Amino acid sequence: MEELRRTSRIAILASGVGSNAEAMLKHFAEGSGADVAEVVWVCTNRAEAKVRAVAKRFGVEDSHLKKVDIQKGALLEGLRARQVDWVALAGFLLKVPEEVCEAFAGRMVNIHPALLPKYGGSGMYGMHVHHAVKEAGDRLSGMTVHLVNQDYDEGDIVFQGEVEIAAADTAEDIANKVLELEHRHYAQVLEGLIRLAHGWDVRDNTHLKSHTS
């Protein structure tokens, strides 16, 4: 009889609408991710963030923590109280406190809407990134999943997915192409990391392999 294994517990940190959070919630509730992990908490720094309604639809606890409380340790306290194993940032616009980075070193991931190290750092998020890509005339963009450390977008890169940009594409077109990649890959990459951390099977090498769309 196969030995029973403990399901890993995931927390999602988000600040906005929560489309990546929704894709992750669905993957770990209904997809292959349900075999290895569950999302147990969605936390936001914005009381009116739409991601809270997304969490409720999946029956997952959601919370709002003010920036000042996050900085005073409430985030780490909340993660520990819920016995969280992995943290996924999904459009979380605050800098993660150093003590959280240390406690979840190697177990906290972020998604960035560009091919890091290009277009990373403070202030480079959302449409700011896509406008910068358009203005530079790049013909290739994509998304990056990376580990989180104390510096914006400088943690080790785990996965990159690429998409071609047409000359006629607007910044909004680029955003839509990149978002499709994010929804397709982010949760699967996290699933792959969890499987590797436990020595479980990785379903296939697309979890942790850079490739084009």
How would you describe the overall organization of this protein?
Strand 4 (86-89), helix 5 (98-103) and strand 5 form a beta-alpha-beta unit. This protein is an alpha/beta fold and 213 residues long. It has 7 helices and 8 strands. The termini are far apart. It has a single domain (8-201), classed as Formyl transferase, N-terminal domain (Rossmann fold), CATH 3.40.50.170. 36% of the residues lie in helices and 22% in strands. Helix 1 (19-30) packs parallel to helix 7 and helix 6 (127-136) packs across helix 7 (171-198). The protein is globular. The chain has an 8-stranded mixed sheet with strand order 3-2-1-4-5-6-7-8, covered by helices on one side.
Structure at a glance:
The protein is 36% helix and 22% strand. With 213 residues, it is of the alpha/beta class.
Number of H/I helices: 7
Q: Are there runs of 5+ residues with pLDDT below 50, and where? A: 209-213
How many strands, what sense, and barrel or not for the largest sheet?
Answer: 8 strands, mixed
CATH architectural category:
3-Layer(aba) Sandwich
Q: Could you spell the SSE succession in H and E letters?
A: EHEHEHHEHEHEEHE
The CATH topology name reads Rossmann fold
- Using the alpha-carbon principal axes, give the shape: globular
Amount of helix:
25-40%
Query: Percent of residues in beta strands?
Result: 15-25%
CATH hierarchy class name = Alpha Beta
Beginning-to-end CA distance, first to last residue: 40 Å
Total strand segments:
8
Kindly give the count of domains. Answer: 1
Estimate the mean pLDDT confidence.
92
Give the helix/strand class.
alpha/beta
- Strand arrangement within the widest β-sheet reads 3-2-1-4-5-6-7-8
